[in-house]
Amino acid sequence: MMRSMGAFVSNNRRFLPLSATIALFFVAYIVGAGVYDGMRDPQIFLNLFRTSPFLLISAIGMTFVIITGGIDLSVSGVIALTTVASAALLRTGDWNPWVVMLLMLAMGMALGAIMGGFITYLKVQPFIATLAGMWVARGLCFFISDDAIPINNRVYRILGQTKILIPGLSDPVTKQGDFISILVVVMLLILFAAIYIAQYTRFGRTVYAIGGNEHSARLMGLPVNRTKMLVYILNGFCSALAGIALSIYVMSGHGLYARGFEMTVIAAVVMGGTLLTGGAGYVFGTLFGVLITGLIQTLIQFNGQLSSWWTNIVVGALTLIFIGVQSLLFVEKKRRTGGRKLAGEEAPPLPRATRTRQVLLYSGGAVILIVLALLAINGAQNAASGPSANTLTPLSVSCELKPFRQDQAASLVKDGAAIVYERNGGASCIDELYAIYPDGRIVGDDGANQIEKQVTEEEVNQLLAEISARGWYTDEMYSTSHVPCGQCFSYNLSVTYQGKEKTVEAVDGGTDAPANYWQVVSLINGVIPDFSPAP
Amino acid sequence: MTPSKPSFKWRKVTESKLFFPFVALAFILLFDLIFVPGFFNFSTRDGHLFGSLIDILRNGTTVMLLGLGMTLVLATGGVDLSVGAVMAISASVAAILMNPVIIGVKLPPDLMKFINDPNFTYAPLWEVILVTLIVAIICGLWNGILVAYARIQPMVATLILMIAGRGIAQLITNGVRIQIFYDPYAFIGNGWLVLPFPLYIVAFVFAVAWLLTRKTSIGLFIESVGVNFRSSFFSGINEKRIKLIAYTFCGFCAGVAGLVASSNIRTSDANNIGMNYELDAILAVVIGGTLMSGGRFSLLASLIGALVIQATTTSMYAIGVPANAVLAIKGLVVIFVILLYSEQVRGFIRRITPQKEA
Prior knowledge:
Strand order of the largest sheet of chain A: 8-7-6-5-9-10
CATH topology of the largest domain in chain A: ABC transporter involved in vitamin B12 uptake, BtuC
Strand content of chain A: 5-15%
CATH class of chain B: Mainly Alpha
Distance between the termini of chain B: 14 Å
Number of strands of chain B: 6
Radius of gyration of chain B: 22 Å
Distance between the termini of chain A: 61 Å
Largest sheet of chain B: 2 strands, antiparallel
Strand order of the largest sheet of chain B: 1-2
Shape of chain B: globular
Structural class of chain B: mainly alpha
CATH architecture of chain B: Orthogonal Bundle
Oligomer: heterodimer
Low-confidence stretches of chain B: none
């Protein structure tokens, strides 16, 4: 009796971070739905899944690595390499897309095996070995291609754009309503497989044992080296799969995709209740870590006032809170075990009550998800491969970056505008086009509204003279490449002065543009009228 | 065969912390000597020294500065992942102090011109530098408190600031990329006094760190905390305060690096300043022979480690490898260095050098 009571208490402790994560997610969602009417739409909830396959898949792999007490910083590099390599192979159309995917998975596993070998057999710190792996992978992307390669493959398009309608929330006849994508189903399948592997296989138990105490795991006769290798190979596989998911999602490949992604992944895993020292954590918690990350982004979008960089701050704060809770638990555990860290405490054999509880929890969670998946597969028959443009910007799904309106700008220049200034991007993805005419008329257009302003002819002349004086028509003023970026603006500026015309493009956040360019931009920003901020 | 006395010295050389970084640097320079004609040429323009070697020194200053702070942190057995984010924060603070009006306000053109004026600054330069460094030191203190007093694993504790830091930096500037037009500030990163000015800053910070660690007992304490913090505690060392000092100094170094980097590119670029620099800094220290598990450290070896990284990058540019692809080469260099440091290779080197002493 006493023993089972003790087990119950220890159960509660062990599940505290996990239940905190789950509770936090639902509380945040309910609060959000209470405050913002738009969030009550079930599609918003489904979008949390729809936008997270790559994050969840790589977070699952990372969970295993972190439970063994290691870390893998190479995920973002491997993801970027996968997108570029698959885009390059698919470009000519000679390769079967399924073969390409298998190749990518094999490549990811090979990279994982190399890093795992360094860590396991040469005793290199996981941090350094995977860091080198990240650099190599990301560098290789640029040996393949400097620019983004679009993917124009039928299979990829079908995988990305097929809507799996949710029965009950959608109309199968008109093919309208709430939906998820095929990637979500894949993601959930991977999740079940990972939960099974972690909790019900010998390999999974060895993983926990290594994280608890590698040395005693070795003394217990567990295959430590083999398991560590397998964990890194598994993570390589997950990274490659996440890379495939990302390339399906954005339909292109580029070496700069997923910059800093490894930190998002690690934060999601930590928020999911996995201890970064290893030995404790649940794959199921990682799901909620990922969902919370998505929810924070959604809440910030719905708020509209907060900029997207608040995501970083909130994720940082939440990570701090979770680590605080965990270290408290850790201290308690140490106190209970008399200051000594018990070898492989989380490892089997677990008390029976623990196991029962674990089985209950996971089967409960699994049932819910299986029902969801069944619904999804059911709905797959109604799947529509409609032309829903899935052009969200990579990893920041806040809004859609619009391309420059080159044609319109050219026609404005032809109409006699002295300056045509286009600015797009930013946190809310504005797309503003201004034409300044020599007579002082300024016409702005943000795609929906028009705005006008009148300045004197004198001012325009002075502005043009200043721009010219800053070397606009010299070689010092050059265009810099257009790289996608989360929050920065890109500029396209044509100036016609004294019969000469020149267009220069640049992007905020790129530090390679001429310094005088930014001076010119700030000069023009001082003149043009302002669109009232969107509600 | 060889006389015992010189062989003893040879062993001492190979065991020295400076040996491997120098060997690595020599390899890279040898590569340049063979494959890049004119790499070792110097020229003087307006009394300034120019040349590829000077470029290596000049571009390596940020990593050198970060490496100095990181050395102390790694020596205590910790790690600071937030240095890049702290660089971004300090760049934002500096820029906002010089150009506060730019935030979210559209200015009339006459004031706009005023801002472009190279002699205009809102706060005086000393105030800009002082406030920036104080903010950076606060960031370091925050890390130190989390690690030393809240007993959070260093990698995790600093991960928090690493994730949140860039957000904070953008919050400070309201997401605007602030241009820095003030010329005296630009001197910090771009100035020349025969040699590039940032080198003197590195020399100064190095001198401070050297005096702090080698002329006081702090250096010894840091090493003993890194070797075994528990026994240091029992022998009466205030290990918490030692850790706090190490992280604070690291924050200070990151602040200085942020000043240099932002003045170099003349913007507060919260998205890109110091991106991936934490990794470069750790790498520089590891190449310098300080173990990531803590213990013995050498500041000079870390500086040479930073130079090894920069020399690799510069050489790659010189032979025409595209900028982004240099990362792959850098990764291979890391793997090479790791192998150089692994027990197997060390054992091999020990075996080929004569064993007998005296």
